[in-house]
Structures are given as C-alpha cells and as structure tokens.
C-alpha cells in the first residue's frame, strides 16, 4: 500500500497500571503505550496509528458508579482495561498512592494475588465530585502477572 499520508512521529498513549509487586503489595504508576504502527485495518481503509495488544477473549461492561460510591479494599476480578467516559474516580493502592482519573484517562487493573496487610488487599476506589463516574471496562481472559509494571507497550 502506498503511503499517501504524512506519518509524522508515532503517538503515545498514557495509562495507569495498577499491579502487584514481588512482595504482594499493590502499586500504581503511569506508563505509555508506544508500539504504534501506521497501517490500515484492512486494504480498503486509510492507514491509522494502531498499537495491537496480544489477542485474548474479553468481556465488555459499561459501568456507572453513583455519586459517593466507594468500593472498599478489593482486587480487580481479572486483568482489565478501564476507560473513563465521564465523571471522576480515584484509585488508592496498598503502597499509599492515590490517583484521580477523569474522562479520556485509561487504567489497567492488574492487582490480583496481593497479600493482605493492615486490612488492605488490592485497592480502594470511589467516585470523586458530584456526578457519577461512567466507564467502559474490558476484562481480559488472561493470567495476571506479578511485578511487571508497565508491561503494555
């Protein structure tokens, strides 16, 4: 396929990765997806930037967290991408890091296999502000990893 468009510099996409470290403690840090390729999704489609992830079975859930909602300490049920559509929420990990996220932000929840400490296991999360938080959650049917922060590139 001939390249009729100026590709420019490949983009990056920031995301928060909530993960379990080698000691069973949940942590979170910001990383970037950067393995973008300029290609069409098929021969008839103009090229675009795509960062394809490993194929897996997935389930999509649309979630609306009510104002004042707090999900007490818990692990993500499976590795899952969470994209905030509207409103705001926070995620606090066992290491004491608290991050607030809003529309357009992305998080990978992969804090399975944490070890309870001081009544905390996984993460604490809840809505922020005076409006519900709407999100799309894509749960992946994959084995969670341990101590691989930022593994999605």
From TrEMBL:
CDD domains per record: cupin_BLL0285-like
Domain of life: Bacteria
Region (Disordered): 100-132
SUPFAM superfamilies, per database record: RmlC-like cupins
Family annotation (InterPro entries): RmlC-like_jellyroll, RmlC_Cupin_sf
Biased amino acid composition, Basic and acidic residues: 112-121
Protein name (Swiss-Prot/TrEMBL): Cupin domain-containing protein
């Amino acid at each position: 396929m001939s390249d009729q468009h100026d590709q420019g510099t490949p983009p990056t996409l920031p995301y928060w990765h909530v993960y379990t470290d080698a000691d069973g403690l949940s942590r979170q840090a910001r990383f970037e997806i950067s393995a973008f390729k300029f290609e069409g999704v098929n021969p008839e489609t103009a090229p675009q930037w795509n960062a394809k992830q490993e194929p897996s079975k997935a389930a999509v859930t649309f979630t609306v967290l009510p104002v004042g909602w707090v999900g007490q300490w818990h692990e993500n049920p499976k590795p899952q991408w969470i994209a905030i559509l509207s409103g705001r929420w926070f995620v606090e990990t066992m290491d004491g890091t608290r991050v607030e996220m809003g529309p357009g932000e992305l998080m990978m929840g992969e804090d399975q296999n944490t070890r309870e400490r001081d009544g905390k296991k996984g993460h604490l999360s809840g809505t922020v502000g005076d409006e519900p938080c709407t999100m799309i959650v894509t749960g992946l049917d994959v084995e969670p990893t341990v101590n691989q922060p930022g593994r999605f590139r």
